[in-house]
Amino acid sequence: MIYDVAVVGAGPAGLAASLTAARHGAKVLLLEKQWRTGRRLAVTGGGRGNVGNLHLDVNFYNIEARPLLEAAADRLQADALTSFLRSVGVLVFADEEGRLYPYTRQAQTVVRSMEDMLEEWQVTLELETELVDFQRQSHGPFRLSTMRGERLARTLVLAVGGTARPTLGGDATAFKLLQKKGYSLRPPKPALVSLVTEKTLAKADGVRVIAEGTLRDRQGKIVKTSAGEYQITKNGLTGIAAMQLGRYVSGDRGPYELTLDFAPHMSADEVAKWLRHVIALQPTRDGRFILTSLLPQKLAVLLASGKKNAGTFADVAVPSLVQAVKETKLSVLGTNDWEQAQVMSGGVTSEMLDTKTLESQIDEGLFMCGEMLDVDGETGGYNLHWAFMSGRTAGCEAAKKALSRRAD
Length: 408
Fold this sequence. Notes:
Helices cover 28% and strands 25% of the residues. By secondary structure, the chain is α+β, with helices and mostly antiparallel strands. It has 3 domains: 253 residues, FAD/NAD(P)-binding domain (3-Layer(bba) Sandwich), CATH 3.50.50.60; 65 residues, no CATH class; 59 residues. Strands 1, 2, 6, 7, 8, 9 and 18 form a 7-stranded mixed sheet that branches. The chain has a 6-stranded antiparallel barrel with strand order 11-14-13-12-15-16. Strands 3-5-4 form a 3-stranded antiparallel sheet. Strand 13 and strand 14 form a beta hairpin. Helix 1 runs parallel beside helix 10 and helix 7 packs across helix 9. The longest helix is centred in the last third of the chain and has 26 residues. It starts with a strand and ends with a helix.
């Protein structure tokens, strides 16, 4: 049998591509190397399924992604995503920060709905089937080599994901294959990943705190600022704000220094004035606890360690305490590994594709979408928005090309 469209990868991009192609009348084959579809999708947003965001802008993505994001208007339209999800039976709502979730607050709802639609639209799904190679036959279909034999398809959509979360299917096999075929890749590295730092704050392990972090490279140039929740760990920092910085940590600009402001809504003078007020109220209080009105106790005690009675050190210690609150500096040693990363930074570059249709510049009839391309966004649903929207584009364009070939 010759399928109209073969899609490789049953993550969010591959599912979107398959359903879109089928809705355009194509006979679709979906190949997935894992034992089930949407494994990473099912755990996104802590299992609640942060599938998108109302507030979309190119600035929420890596700068290399702009040609792909700006090539079609719907790639940065929340309405386009919600419309697509409704078309596969998923109703979403936005929280107070604009993050989109399924109405059930369960990521598994999205996976089940899309699986049901695969059956409804008669998409042939083959699980535990890994693509080994593909070749475009002269004026003919693609010949796909898998561990279970060969398959033929008029067009091919690659939606193989990235290298993050290996236990959920992430690996570099497809990238090695594409490089052999002449495709250019920006080297993959972990993104949305925790930071490994010097252990200055290790004794405050487990503390969550709102702060603003400023990452600087070895020349002292500001690389990125990230405000929000940080969680201190034995080895560094995690939490949404810390993970936003992960993609910017690379060996060529390091070592890095991170400056943490634990009172981002107060000036240094305001912090000093407040501390002197607290000291005046409780001059005999143990100085180690003087920061507890501003910070969680475990962190407050660590930053004020060595201090004695508050009243005896006010003039000397207040400036150093203000600096600890407003400018705690940490050396950033790197990031955690692929298993801890939510997404991959890097991938097939935009120059390899027609940015509007996502068709390969090398192999006619080959389309790519999702995380495998050089597009990675901040936390908040931006990566899944790209996956769904790029998958929809690739599926639509692959189906149109396949049906025109079938007619010929």
